[in-house]
Amino acid sequence: MDALKKGNVKPEEVELIIVATITPDMLFPATACLVQQMIGATNAAAFDLEAACSGFIYALEIGQQFIMSRTYNTVLVIGAEKLSTIIDWEDRNSCVLFGDGAGAAILQNRPNSHGLLTAAMGSDGTKGELLCMPAGGSQIPATRESVNNRLHFLRMDGRETFKNAVNAMCIAAKEVLTRCQLDISQIQHIIPHQANKRIIAAVGDRLKATKDQVFVNLDRYGNTSAASVAIALDEAAESGRLKRGDLILIIVFGAGLTWGAAVIEWWPRVRLTEGYLMVDWEIQPNMKSSKLDTSGVFDPVTVTNKEMELSLPAHSVHLQNNGIEFLSLSEVPLWTELAIHLQSPTQAGKIQCNGIVVGCIGNKHAGYVVSIIFTGVLPDVQERISDLVQAQPSL
Description:
Blueprint: H1 2-6, E1 16-20, H2 31-39, E2 45-49, H3 55-68, E3 74-82, E4 100-108, E5 116-123, E6 131-132, H4 144-148, E7 155-156, H5 158-179, E8 189-192, H6 197-207, H7 218-221, H8 228-238, E9 247-254, E10 258-265, E11 269-273, E12 276-280, E13 301-304, E14 309-312, E15 317-320, E16 323-328, E17 337-343, E18 350-363, E19 367-375, H9 379-391
C-alpha cells in the first residue's frame, strides 16, 4: 500500500501484480493473488515469479515487457520473503545471514518517461545444488524421513556460491553498462544484492566503483533475497540520496543459479501546479519510442529566446495552467527567460506568453526534461491556456 500511495495509484488502477518470492504463503494460490485480494486490486491479473535473490530484477523486466507491448499500463512489482521459515537454525554458517522483508514498485506507461533503461539476466542450472532447499516440492514431498533429515531447510555451499556470485554479478553489470554506453564513473549509485559484505566489496572492487557509489543496508536487514534490492532502492530514495536524473546500477545474484543487472534512470514525475513544483517519486519503464496522440489539441510548440529557438512536437510537451514541461535534446540553463508560443488547431491565432526555466534535469544520453513556469500571463491568455489544458490527454 505504501508503493501505491507514493505513486498516487488507486488499487483498482493496478492491472497486473507480480510477486517475486521463494517463500510464498502456500504453493497455491499464488501470493500475488492474496495481495490482489488484500489491497482491493479488483482489475488486476496476478502471478508469482521464482528467481530467488534475482527475482526483483526479473519481475521488473517482465513488468516492463507487459507495458511496452501495451497489454497493461500499470504494474505492481513486489519482492517479498519470509526466510526465517526455511532457515536451519542449527546451521550457524547460514542462519545468521538471512532475514525477512518486502519491497514494491509501480511501473506505468507514461510518454517521454525514463526509468528502466535496460536489464540483463542469466542462469546456470548445472550449479543449482550450491544454494537450494531439497524437499517440499513434488520430487521430495514432505515425509517423516525428509523432516528428520532436515531437507526442508535452506542449504548453501558458501565458498562456491561466493565465487559464482562475484563473477556473474560483474558480468551482468558490465553487460548493461555496455548496452547503455556508460562507464562506471557515470553511475551515481550502485545497489547490489545485499548478500554479504565480502560479495559487495568484491563486486565493487572489480567494477572499480567507489565506496560512495555503493549503497549498503545489509547490517540492518541481512539477506532478504528477492526483497533485498527493492528495500535498498526505497531506503536510498527516502534518505534523499537519489536525485532526479541519477543513473542507478542494480546487480543481483541468487539460487538457480540466477543473476541479473539493470540500469535505472531515476526520474521523479514533476507536476506543475499553482505556485510551486510538486514532485512524486516513482520508477517508470523506458518508453522513449512511444507517441502520445495529441492531434486536435494543440499544434507544435515553439520556445524562443535571443540565443535559441525550439520547435517541439505536441507529444513531447506536458502543458499545465501555470507552465509546461518538455523533453529537450540539449540542456537549457536555469532561470533562462523564454517566450512560449502555443498554437491550437481549434482556436484562431497563437497563444503567446513568457516563462522562466525552473528545472532542467537529465543527461546527454537520455535528453533533458525542461520545466518552465509562466510569468506575467494576462487573464484572457490564461483562459485560453486553461482550455488547452482541459482538452489535453491525461499524462
